Amino acid sequence: MTSQQLIRFAPSPRRVLLVLPDRVGEVAMATPFIRGLFARFPEAQIHLLMNRPLLPLLEGSPWLNHAHFHAPRDKTPEAKSARQQLLSELKAQEFDLAVMLPDSLRSAWLCFRADAKHRLGFSRNGRGLLLTDRVAVPNKIRGGYEPMPLCDYYAVLAAALGMAHPGDELQLFLVDHADAAVVQRLAGEGVRPEQPLVVLCPGAGFGASRYWPPERFAEVADQLVRRFGAAIVIPPGPGEEALAELVRDAMHEQCFLLTEPCLSLGELKSLIADADLLLGNDTGPRQFGRAFDTPLVTVFGPTEQRWTDTSYVRESIVKVNVPCGPCHKNVCPLEEQVCMTQVTVDAVVAACEEQLRPQL
């Protein structure tokens, strides 16, 4: 099939498997599609297949009644046993339809081995023969792919299922226990309720090339404390603790570093939902801000902005256009990473002021 053709179901699917992306930000950007899929098949039993660490991301949603989790990819006997168990679980469900949001060969191979009757996904990465319903890649051009918003990319799969465009309004949910834990944590750290709450996320899972220099984040944070009396809260993800400490150590004003322990994904949702501003690089928590209508300031470097564009209006993007970008390299091969070093402190402070002032 092509992206203009519809799958014909007779009867309508009783059981549907939706394979979710592997990254935090991509799962958040998939939420319009998830919402639309449940509306498209209201009588079906819809199962989600995802990475277990991402479960708190969707906690509180009405979509988690049936969840399965990817097995480890290593070659240990335990991992092999877990993969076999997962396959048995999926086969037992006798899925009428499997929809793959990731473009990976792994997702297609798993749905093929699970004997899903219809297997829908984009025909790329050599997996076309494993799909029963192949959707043409909408943005393929000579030598690569034309950037397009991820929500629009998923909408092409939606069209093949007879769904309207799901839109790009991200939807995440809060849970009481995470909300309470964050309130208690902030009070224990000494954050005063009357202070403007600025959450600073200096990391990025993509790689070091996406980091704006920590000393510049520190300088911006100092100015926000002095001008607005802001409480600067830094909640690093796993493996980002050292980077967060660099920001703290470069600051002259007080900040609150949440590392002992780090917040869970559920707690991070609650923190960002309550924030007056989220400042950071192009990284997963940015999508939390969009879902909870939190004002955002995002520093862009080597990544293409168009992949993650939405119609969200309470975000200021700070970037410079350079001849070598966007390159999407994990590590910059140049002596100076100009796409990041040319982003000035003054430009980021001005963007933060633009987002903060209407709320104060």
UniProtKB/TrEMBL annotation:
It comes from the Bacteria. One of its GO terms (molecular function) is ADP-heptose-lipopolysaccharide heptosyltransferase activity. GO terms for biological process: lipopolysaccharide core region biosynthetic process. InterPro entries: Glyco_trans_9 (IPR002201), LPS_LOS_Heptosyltrfase (IPR051199), RfaF (IPR011910). The keyword Chloroplast does not apply. Signal peptide: none annotated. Pfam families: Glyco_transf_9. Gene3D superfamilies: Glycogen Phosphorylase B. It is an enzyme of class 2 (transferase). SUPFAM superfamilies: UDP-Glycosyltransferase/glycogen phosphorylase. One of its GO terms (cellular component) is cytosol. Its EC number is 2.4.99.24. The keyword Glycosyltransferase applies. It catalyses: an L-alpha-D-Hep-(1->5)-[alpha-Kdo-(2->4)]-alpha-Kdo-(2->6)-lipid A + ADP-L-glycero-beta-D-manno-heptose = an L-alpha-D-Hep-(1->3)-L-alpha-D-Hep-(1->5)-[alpha-Kdo-(2->4)]-alpha-Kdo-(2->6)-lipid A + ADP + H(+). Keywords: Glycosyltransferase, Transferase. Belongs to the glycosyltransferase 9 family. This is lipopolysaccharide heptosyltransferase II. The lineage of its organism: Bacteria, Pseudomonadati, Pseudomonadota, Gammaproteobacteria, Cellvibrionales.
